[in-house]
Design a protein that fits this description.
The protein is of the alpha/beta class. The protein is built from 14 helices and 19 strands. Helix 2 crosses helix 3, helix 8 packs parallel to helix 9 and helix 9 crosses helix 10. The chain starts with a strand and ends with a helix.
Length: 441
């Protein structure tokens, strides 16, 4: 049965193309949304861009007819802008007098429910508005078009029980074939079905079931960083393989996501000369209360945001003293920047660029929307490798959550793609204290 979906403003700010995502159902926009879009469109970040995009889309659609009467959508439904009925608005409980915009949306949904013969659903990413709608007898849903099931998120790894001869063949011949047992670039742990303690680490090359043993990491590590567990070994393989253009690393704090990515990037850029530059970007999203405007030039303003990246470089290089006096100590990443091999910048500067033959790391990618991640990936030029790292449980962006952020969205959408690989890291390696804190707290 055809439905009528009443959208909240935050749905359009999250996905500016949301009005086209409801198949052949009708989409209703309360007129208060237009006023809210006008307020948000002046913001410089993704929210402002999305608000402006929606406004332009509505302006184009109104040329086809009156928005209050309904405009035919490509999928077969209609888009309509609904006015708020004052009588219905006055019937709302007096306790809801605080948020006039929310009340106007509720009033439109209630009025539509009385008039429409079809089911009416209020769609909002605001948890409290969905609760209010439910109390008033309205069906309410979260905008789930781009959501993924976090509990079932692809880990990039699997275990396969095999015969003893199969493991022997893997190392003697250098490859085996197990059709239909793994996705391309999936990390495998082969377990001897007669002796479960006898295992082998391998990786699937393609969709034809060709499997190769996991290459050994050099004795001196990758940029002096050694893999400390199975997941980190798998991650290094994906990061170092040139045939893989997109790598996603998901894991809690201290699992080594950023460190492994930087170590691999440095190795590929400085040692192998495979890429022209290591480019590292991260979104400028504060954790907790923002400290406001920071003094100094651009580099000084960015230092607090980029400090976690600098810490990783210090771990890789150590502090190099040029004269022996502390005030003349030189950090390794500064020399790489001067040589043009390294660039660290906020993610805002990526938009509009074309990035060829670079090793691009996007740190804290869980704070990005699916639309923002799409914008980043479409910046990648020829021979560029993109690495997304993050922890879906540590999101500071109020417009996304663990199920709707850009990182988990990409993991699921690129699952099984020959040019992409993913690993979920579980074991913390930062310190015993950090690991126990992550578990107990």
């Amino acid at each position: 049965m055809k439905k009528a979906f009443v959208l909240d403003t935050n749905v359009l700010l999250h996905d500016p193309n949301a009005i086209f995502r409801f198949e052949d159902n009708d989409v209703v926009l309360p007129i208060t949304i237009i006023e809210e879009l006008d307020r948000f469109k002046k913001q410089p970040q993704e929210t402002g861009r999305n608000a402006r995009w929606v406004s332009r889309t509505l302006d184009e659609l109104r040329l086809q007819g009156q928005l209050t009467q309904g405009i035919e959508l490509p999928q077969g439904g209609k888009l309509r802008v609904a006015l708020c009925d004052r009588i219905t608005l006055q019937e709302l409980p007096p306790e809801l007098e605080g948020d006039q915009a929310d009340n106007a949306i509720l009033a439109v949904a209630l009025d539509l429910k009385r008039q429409c013969q079809c089911p009416v659903v209020l769609v909002s990413k605001d948890t409290n508005l969905r609760i209010k709608a439910d109390i008033l007898g309205l069906a309410a849903e979260d905008y789930a078009t781009d959501k993924v099931d976090v509990d079932e998120l692809y880990t990039g790894m699997t275990e396969i029980m095999v015969h003893t001869e199969t493991i022997s063949q893997l190392f003697q011949v250098g490859q085996i074939t197990l059709p239909g047992m793994a996705l391309p670039n999936q990390a495998l742990t082969l377990i001897d079905n007669l002796n479960p303690s006898h295992t082998a680490l391998a990786i699937a090359k393609d969709t034809h079931g060709e499997i190769i043993p996991l290459p050994k990491i050099p004795h001196n590590g990758i940029s002096r960083i050694h893999a400390r567990n199975r997941e980190q070994k798998f991650a290094f393989e994906l990061l170092l393989r040139d045939s893989i253009s997109l790598v996603t690393l998901v894991g809690k704090a201290g699992t080594g996501k950023t460190l492994l990515a930087i170590a691999a990037g440095l190795h590929k850029v400085a040692d192998e000369k495979r890429y022209s530059r290591l480019l590292i970007a991260r979104p400028i999203v504060p954790m907790g209360r923002d400290l406001g405007y920071l003094p100094g030039d651009v580099n000084e303003k960015l230092t607090p945001w980029m400090q976690p990246l600098y810490d990783n470089f210090d771990l890789i290089f150590g502090t190099q003293a040029t004269t022996g006096h502390p005030q003349h100590w030189r950090r390794g990443h500064e020399e790489l920047i001067e040589q043009g091999l390294l660039q660290i910048e906020p993610l805002t500067y990526i938009r509009g660029r074309t990035i060829p033959k670079q090793f691009l790391i996007v740190d804290e990618a869980q704070n990005l929307t699916p639309h923002e991640v799409k914008t980043i990936l479409t910046r990648a030029g020829e021979e560029t490798k993109v690495v997304l790292t993050g922890d879906p449980e540590q999101i500071d962006n109020p417009y996304v959550d663990a199920a709707s952020n850009g990182l988990t969205y990409v993991v699921e959408r690129f699952k099984g793609e020959p040019i992409a690989g993913h690993i979920t890291l579980y074991q913390g390696e930062r310190s015993e204290l950090a690991e126990r804190a992550a578990i107990l707290l």
